[in-house]
Structures are given as structure tokens and as C-alpha cells.
Automatic annotation (TrEMBL):
Transmembrane segments: none annotated. Residues 1-95 form the Transposase IS200-like domain. It comes from the Bacteria. It comes from Saccharopolyspora erythraea (strain ATCC 11635 / DSM 40517 / JCM 4748 / NBRC 13426 / NCIMB 8594 / NRRL 2338). One of its GO terms (biological process) is DNA transposition. This is ISHa1942 transposase A homolog. Gene3D superfamilies: Transposase IS200-like. SUPFAM superfamilies: Transposase IS200-like. Pfam families: Y1_Tnp. GO terms for molecular function: DNA binding; transposase activity. InterPro entries: Transposase_17, Transposase_17_sf.
Length: 100
């Protein structure tokens, strides 16, 4: 999924600085220019990743027929202009679910 997200970001002339998450959500730290609309970037990240992951993983394809969606329609975006990037990176890195 990270490869897909990086490619989409590159298409928008953005940089995916950090990627992590858990089984039910993802955390992305993205550097992007002011000309990029966050809503369009998120829509593309979700749409492209959904299409490519369904194509690669057959189980996901069948889940869609049962009404299951890979992504919800919601997202959270926050500006971190005032926080040191190292603090934000550390937060995202700590979001990984521990191995069981």
C-alpha cells in the first residue's frame, strides 16, 4: 500500500514523508504545495489504492460484492506547520500495531 500511496503523491507533486497505521486505518505525513487540494489528493489516494489493491488481492474483490468497502468516506487532515517534523514522524511511527 505504501508504494501505491507514494506513486499517487508523486503524481500530485507531493512527497510522502511517512507512512504507517493499523489494520483499520493509515497515517500519512505528506508534504504538498499550496496548489494541491487536500480533498482531491485524499480522494485519489483512496480511489487508486482501492482499485489496485482489489486487483492484486482477490479476497478484497469478493468482499466488495458483499457490500464491504476498503475505505470509509471520511478522513482527517491536519496542518503540522508549527510542530517539529521529528515529533510528527515519531507520532506516526508509534502508530504501528505491535506484533502478536
Amino acid at each position: 500500500m505504501e508504494e501505491i500511496m507514494r506513486a499517487v503523491c508523486e503524481d500530485f507533486e507531493c512527497e510522502l514523508a511517512e507512512f504507517n497505521g493499523e489494520t483499520n486505518h493509515a497515517h500519512l505525513l505528506v508534504n504538498f504545495p499550496p496548489k494541491v487540494a487536500v480533498s482531491k489528493l485524499v480522494n485519489s489516494l483512496k480511489g487508486v489504492s482501492s482499485r489496485l489493491l482489489r486487483k492484486e488481492f482477490e479476497d478484497l474483490r469478493f468482499a466488495y460484492w458483499k457490500g464491504v468497502r476498503l475505505w470509509s468516506g471520511s478522513y482527517f487532515a491536519g496542518s503540522v506547520g508549527g510542530a517539529p517534523i521529528s515529533v510528527v514522524r515519531q507520532y506516526i511511527e508509534q502508530q504501528a500495531r505491535p506484533s502478536v
